[in-house]
Please model this.
Amino acid sequence: MLRIFTRLLWALIAVAAAFAMATIARSRGEPVNSMWLVIAAVCTYLIGYRFYAGFLAARVMALDDQRATPAERLRDGHDYEPTNKWIVFGHHFAAIAGPGPLVGPTLAAQFGYLPGALWIIVGAVLAGAVQDFVVLFCSLRRDGKSLGQMAREEIGKTGGFAALITVLLIMVILLAVVALVIVNALKSSPWGTFTIAATMPIAIFMGLYLRYWRPGKVLECSGVGFVLIMASIFGGQAVSESATWAPWFTFSAIAIAGGLVVYGFLASALPVWLLLAPRGYLSTFVKLGVVLLLGLGVLTVHPTLQLPPLTRFIDGTGPIFAGKIFPFCFITIACGAISGFHALISSGTTPKMLAKETNARAVGYGSMLLESFVALMALIAAASLQPGVFFAVNSPAGIVGSTADAAVAKITSWGFPVTAPEMQQLATDVGEKTLFYRTGGAPSLALGMAHIFSFVGGSRGLIAFWYHFAIMFEVLFILTVLDAGTRVGRFMLQDLLAMKKTSSTPGMLATSAVIVAAWGYFLFQGVRDPLGGINSLWPLFGIANQLLATIALCVATTILIKMHGVKYLWVTLVPLAWLVVVTFTAGWQKIFSPLPDLGFLAQADKLAADPQTSATATLIFNARLDAAVCGVFLILVTVILIDSIRVWTGILSGTRDARLTETPFIQSELA
Amino acid sequence: MRKLLEVLRGIVDELSDQRAYRCHLAAHGAAHSAEEWRKFSDELYLAKSTRARCC
Model:
């Protein structure tokens, strides 16, 4: 009886998923409620988790709770420690959830909500969660080894080295692009700038509090920090309304970029306990709180999607970034569907904490589904804005014109009516001077979130507070990535140069300066770019991120071939093949497309044909540099692919050792 | 409900490094003190700051 009931329940979930998907896909012209997206996503996740992840766990990986995990065998009370499944889930989710799934879907909304939503749901179930789960399993069976170590052992030294270089380059582009998002959110915004500037002394105060005044009281300290940050949002409002103080906190994009570069260097060089650690705690709690709040907000308000399912920009003429829906929708969504960076987390701390092998399903597969859901919430928040407003906020002056009248005329001519007084009123409502040309996704996401939160909060008068709360959350979150990433980049460079991590101060300062200079260069390039920077940097980041996922899937495929021959090869080979096609197409187009808005080389050629100034010469050099970076990414991944295919054919033809490098079975005492 | 609260508390403990600190104290047979926290956090933060952050 129970069996029949269970089957009926799953049939019902499948029908609900299909019905919701059909409702979304069939809507033409009439507005769609966001709840259909939520229902489609949740039902698809449930089916994916129950059946596909169950199949992977039982048949492909043969997870075995009788086998002791690294956490049990190597338990040291430090890195290796058997931990409750849901606690590891929380830890893993907090580690994988970055700004990417918030910003990427917002930018991809230029194609309409449908392509992004479908890729976020389907991509996560069939590719992203599979990658995270399989890599976690591989690391779990290898004492928690890192992706780089596994690449070296399973594919070869070339693969391992290429993986290290790729990660370092991705880090540089990632830091530049997230810094650019901050710049575009804070330029000419005294309220936002004051709030974020105040987080620096607050973080230092928290660092001192935790180290000297109340050692170990992390929660108490984070609570104090949160109260102070809330106060700083109100302080920001007072500053923005003061004729005396507002000019002190009103900066141009270049000035904010300069400030971020200085900040990045200090964060890399200062002791971790003083700035990074306290801010990391605060950012983690705020991040989880806001994600929860956004989820509850969308469920409560279930806003109607104002953007159409598909826009005219699927043809590649979009104002936010150039390129057709294929491949650029997939490149832009990035972390919301599949992220190479997750493979670094799945082969980092997480495998050292799992008490049982079967817990890997909830942690590896399940947490990626949750991340995908966060991406969907971000897409809903952006798509619930009036389309004219969405494009007015996200389009650069280089595309829509440098005056408000020119911009609204251009955007209205695309079929998305908006007026200058309407934009001015919205800017006044949220406490800003203007909302035009705020590219990067963060401000439009903040607007969408503020609309939802102010509905839940019961007062539309609070929209200015919620807008700046959302900006504070996004920037705080991104700054954590920026400062931690700069430090990690420094350590990677020290590794590459065979320097000790605790090397002398000049060495540490020099490597910090190199990393900051590298991402700072791309940041300034983005700030000066007449097309807003996001047009060139975000696709570059997306390509790099997806190429890292390609490397992770190469390692996973090699291990699956060693385990089962060709039997379950498709599990990782299908997403791998898709990623190779998408990333190589996108990379090729970004380098060689004859369209100047899309292809870096065509852009350089077009600029070279114009009258030459020093600014033009810099833009030409930057376009060629971007082409070169993109080319290096493609070459590195081609090397790994060729190396992997050589290994696979060797194993399958019997000319190569197919022995697994798993640690031997040891009976678990926790089972 | 009690179990859910326990799990939530466990997650908060994990994210605020309280669980790791308790393990550290147990492994070293030490009691909580300002010095012990500083020793623990220096090691922990060094390890954390060398790990890649997700985007």
User: Anything to note?
Assistant: The mean pLDDT of chain A is 92.
